[in-house]
Amino acid sequence: MIISAKYFNSEKSVVIITYDTGLIINVPVDMNNFHYQELNRWVKNGGEIEDFESYLIHRQKYAKFTRDEAEDSNIVVLGVEWQVDEKSRDRMNRVIATSARDNAPNTETVTWILADDSERETTVGDLCQVLDAHAYRTQAIFSQYRAWLAGDMSSYFEYVEPE
Q1: Mean pLDDT by 10 residues, the chain (163 residues)
Q2: Pair 49, 43: CB distance under 8 Å
């Protein structure tokens, strides 16, 4: 484990020399995308660096967390903000399934609690629109994530909402 390290910066690389093992790591870096604070935080929290690949694996785990967080974040549909975490999507699907079993029209309403805890008379059709919007956003998130994976992973993964 790295107890502490010294960073030497240049325009083309970062050299990390660990005090406990004397390990020298030369990290090629685009200075605009490399995040010293993230690496330093990881080192201080007990991360072990054998080579730059270990750091990229850490970066990828963080990217997966960010990707999943974006997928479960609230979404604005029909002019209001909806919770679309897994539990909320399950609730929506149960209401839609119950309505279908009862042969109820998509215009039947239920009182739905929105992300801000306000109530809204909501149709089954509205819930379908929310789930559809979530599905499209999830596709966009994973498309951006795949593009990030195909790159050098030197920057943070961040989902950017299409306009």
Answers
A1: 43 49 49 52 55 67 89 96 97 95 88 97 96 97 93 81 84
A2: yes
- Between the alpha carbon of residue 161 and those of residues 68, 71, 114, 116, the distances in Å are 14, 11, 21, 21
* CA–CA dist 27, 48 (Å, integer): 15
- 120, 111 in Cβ contact below 8 A? yes
d(CA 26, CA 53): 12
**Joined tokens for residue 23:** 């390990």
Cα–Cα distance between 5 and 76 in angstroms, integer? 45
The secondary structure element, H or E, covering residue 13 is strand 13-18
What DSSP character marks residue 39? H
